[in-house]
Amino acid sequence: QVQLVESGGGSVQAGGSLRLSCAASRYTYSRYSMGWFRQAPGKEREGVAAINSDGFTTYADSVKGRFTISHDNAKNILYLQMNSLKPEDTAMYYCAARVILGILTLSPGAYNYWGQGTQVTVSS
Question: Residue 73 and residue 19: Cα distance in Å, rounded?
Answer without folding.
Answer: 17
